[in-house]
Amino acid sequence: MKKAQIIAIGFIGLGLLDSLITFAFPIDFTYVHYSFVPHLVFIGTLVYTVDKPWLNRILISMVIGLGFDLLFAQMFPMNMILFALFGYLAGWIYEHMHREGSLFLIFLGCAFLYDLIPYIIYFMINHSPSLDTWFYKIESLTLLADLISILFLMYIQQVMSRFFMIRQYRERKQTTKKLNQIKTSRK
């Protein structure tokens, strides 16, 4: 399988896992019970695009956000815009910080802002709930789930990059071996 196919299947899997978790643990918009919102696709997008060139980050994030909007019936252009914005922002911050350890904090900050911006828009329209209620009932567990998701997806990204590097090395080695066989057979 090609790298692009594996990545596409991975994002589809993350989207299905997002919807399965949301179905199993529904979000309580009455703010009576605690609930959380999984952000596997969003965090996966950040992890995948953070080291790409700026235009690629924006375009890849927009496409993934558009697919997320179309498949999961959210506010239509909201995820596409937010994915592109945070895809660019995470990469820009990472380029200027030059520290591998800061990636975790960048992703966590983007995940928090990804929730905060729609909350502010909703609050301006509806004037409920209060910020402390929202943070206490939904966002606190969401941030905990995001912590686990970030660690998991960063680990998966490292494993996959190592897998593709080993695969590329083996293909290069096999090509070199074939070229050497062709050279020796001509002599």
UniProtKB/TrEMBL annotation:
<dbReference type="Pfam" id="PF04093">
    <property type="entry name" value="MreD"/>
</dbReference>
<comment type="similarity">
    <text>Belongs to the MreD family.</text>
</comment>
<keyword id="KW-0812">Transmembrane</keyword>
<feature type="transmembrane region" description="Helical">
    <location>
        <begin position="7"/>
        <end position="25"/>
    </location>
</feature>
<dbReference type="GO" id="GO:0008360">
    <property type="term" value="P:regulation of cell shape"/>
</dbReference>
<feature type="transmembrane region" description="Helical">
    <location>
        <begin position="134"/>
        <end position="156"/>
    </location>
</feature>
<dbReference type="GO" id="GO:0005886">
    <property type="term" value="C:plasma membrane"/>
</dbReference>
<keyword id="KW-0472">Membrane</keyword>
<keyword id="KW-0133">Cell shape</keyword>
<dbReference type="InterPro" id="IPR007227">
    <property type="entry name" value="Cell_shape_determining_MreD"/>
</dbReference>
<keyword id="KW-1133">Transmembrane helix</keyword>
<protein>
    <submittedName>
        <fullName>Rod shape-determining protein MreD</fullName>
    </submittedName>
</protein>
<keyword id="KW-1003">Cell membrane</keyword>
<feature type="transmembrane region" description="Helical">
    <location>
        <begin position="78"/>
        <end position="94"/>
    </location>
</feature>
<feature type="transmembrane region" description="Helical">
    <location>
        <begin position="101"/>
        <end position="122"/>
    </location>
</feature>
